[in-house]
């Protein structure tokens, strides 16, 4: 698991939750592939092998990748490349990148890989599923599996009735998107989703794992976060299940300026994309009050221009 102090990288919550519940992720998102796998045998995350094929992967990238070795029921080794795309907008080179990674695995390790994509973006029309080219004497059609989290909006009752951890993950993701401009509603849903973990009767470690994901993605303005935390402490006391609120809190300490900066940078990365070093320095130079003002304003940001306009309005050059 990633140390909570190092959780500034946007892909970390997805990587953590997939590592913690990989079989459940496969059952939930890709049941046909899951049915091929002998889950009685151990599976292995091939981090070193993935780094060898992901040469252009950049720090702070907005997607999470896992290369996993599993065993088929017939006894043969199988590699899975699971990709989580966490973009605010569609990415034109996505299908090409899926093909490139698949080919590099085959080229370097002489292993075919099943490529699978989990698409978290809010664009209903963007549904990449293949990469191809066609010439008179040469053609290629590369197809990969993909699921769109947005499609679960119409299956919310099904999610609520599921005890698969990824039902909770999808609900948290959808409600984060839906409450982008309504922090009060986000607070209500955040509390509801966390309370549901206790209602399901999950073991303490599972509650902690899923709490960490919900808390990481369902970010609230500081005042509402403080309200949430007090209500949650009372809830755990009433349930006599102090799994999360005892000892040091899981998640960011949002009261300190350094913590506020990390939080704002993480939120902006999600809302508007990668920030230049210059913009990062401007944010790090803001006072605590300015950071709190920006933290509330950026819930409505959809593009880099919104951030630049905010600086123009709220901070002299």
Concise synopsis of the structure shown:
This protein has helices at residues 12-20, 22-29, 31-34, 47-53, 94-109, 156-160, 165-178, 183-199, 204-217, 222-239, 257-272, 277-284, 288-297, 304-314; strands spanning 44-45, 63-71, 77-85, 113-119, 130-134, 139-143, 145-148. With 317 residues, the protein is an alpha/beta fold.
Features:
317 residues, alpha/beta, 3 domains, five-stranded mixed beta sheet, two-stranded antiparallel ribbon, 14 helices, 13% strand, disordered N terminus
Description:
With 317 residues, this protein is an alpha/beta fold. It folds into three domains: 4-152; 179-251; 256-317, no CATH class. The protein has 14 helices and seven strands. The chain has helices at 12-20, 22-29, 31-34, 47-53, 94-109, 156-160, 165-178, 183-199, 204-217, 222-239, 257-272, 277-284, 288-297, 304-314, and strands at 44-45, 63-71, 77-85, 113-119, 130-134, 139-143, 145-148. It has a five-stranded mixed beta sheet with strand order 1-2-3-4-7, with helices on both faces. Strands 5-6 form a two-stranded antiparallel ribbon. Strand 2 and strand 3 form a beta hairpin. Mean pLDDT is 83; it is low at 1-10 and 250-255.
């Amino acid at each position: 698991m990633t140390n909570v102090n190092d959780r500034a990288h946007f892909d970390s919550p997805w990587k953590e939750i997939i590592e913690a519940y990989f079989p459940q992720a496969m059952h939930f998102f890709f049941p046909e592939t899951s049915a091929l796998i002998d889950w009685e045998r151990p599976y292995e995350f091939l981090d070193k092998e993935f780094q060898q094929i992901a040469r252009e992967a950049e720090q702070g990238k907005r997607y999470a990748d896992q290369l996993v070795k599993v065993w088929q029921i017939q006894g043969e080794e199988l590699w899975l490349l699971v990709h989580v795309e966490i973009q605010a907008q569609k990415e034109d080179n996505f299908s090409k990148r899926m093909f490139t990674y698949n080919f590099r695995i085959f080229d370097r390790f002489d292993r075919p890989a099943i490529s699978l994509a989990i698409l978290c973006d809010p664009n209903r029309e963007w549904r990449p599923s293949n990469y191809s080219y066609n010439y008179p004497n040469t053609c290629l059609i590369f197809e990969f599996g993909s699921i769109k989290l947005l499609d679960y909006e119409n299956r919310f009752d099904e999610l609520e009735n599921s005890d698969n951890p990824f039902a909770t993950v999808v609900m948290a993701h959808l409600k984060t998107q839906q409450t982008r401009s309504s922090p009060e509603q986000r607070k209500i849903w955040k509390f509801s989703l966390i309370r549901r973990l206790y209602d399901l009767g999950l073991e303490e470690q599972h509650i902690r794992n899923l709490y960490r994901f919900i808390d990481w993605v369902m970010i609230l303005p500081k005042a509402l976060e403080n309200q949430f935390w007090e209500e949650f402490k009372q809830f755990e006391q009433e349930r006599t299940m102090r799994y999360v609120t005892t000892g040091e809190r899981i998640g960011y300490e949002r009261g300190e300026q350094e913590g506020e900066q990390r939080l704002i940078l993480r939120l902006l990365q999600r809302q508007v994309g990668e920030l230049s070093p210059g913009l990062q320095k401007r944010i790090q130079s803001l006072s605590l009050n300015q950071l709190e003002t920006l933290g509330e304003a950026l819930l409505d940001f959809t593009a880099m221009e919104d951030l630049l306009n905010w600086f123009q309005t709220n901070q002299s050059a």
